[in-house]
Amino acid sequence: MRVLVIGSGAREHALLLALSRDPQVTGLSVAPGNAGTARLAEQHDVDITSGEAVIALARKVEADLVVIGPEVPLVLGVADAVRAAGITCFGPSKGAALIEGSKAFAKDVMAAAGVRTASSEIVDNPAHLDAALGRFGPPAGDPAWVVKDDSLAAGKGVVVTADREVARAHAAGLLEAGHPALLEAFLDGPEVSLFCVVDGATVVPLLPAQDFKRVGDGDTGPNTGGMGAYAPLPWLPDTVYREIVEQIVEPVAAEMVRRGSPFSGLLYAGLAITPAGPAVVEFNCRFGDPETQAVLALLESPLGQLLYAAGNGKLAEFGELRWHEGAAVTVVLAAENYPGRPRVGDVVTGSEAEGILHAGTTRRDDGAVVSSGGRVLSVVGTGTDLSAARANAYHIMESVRLPGSHFRTDIGQRAAEGKISV
Ligand code: GLY
Question: 284 alpha carbon to ligand 1 midpoint, in Å?
Answer without folding.
Answer: 8
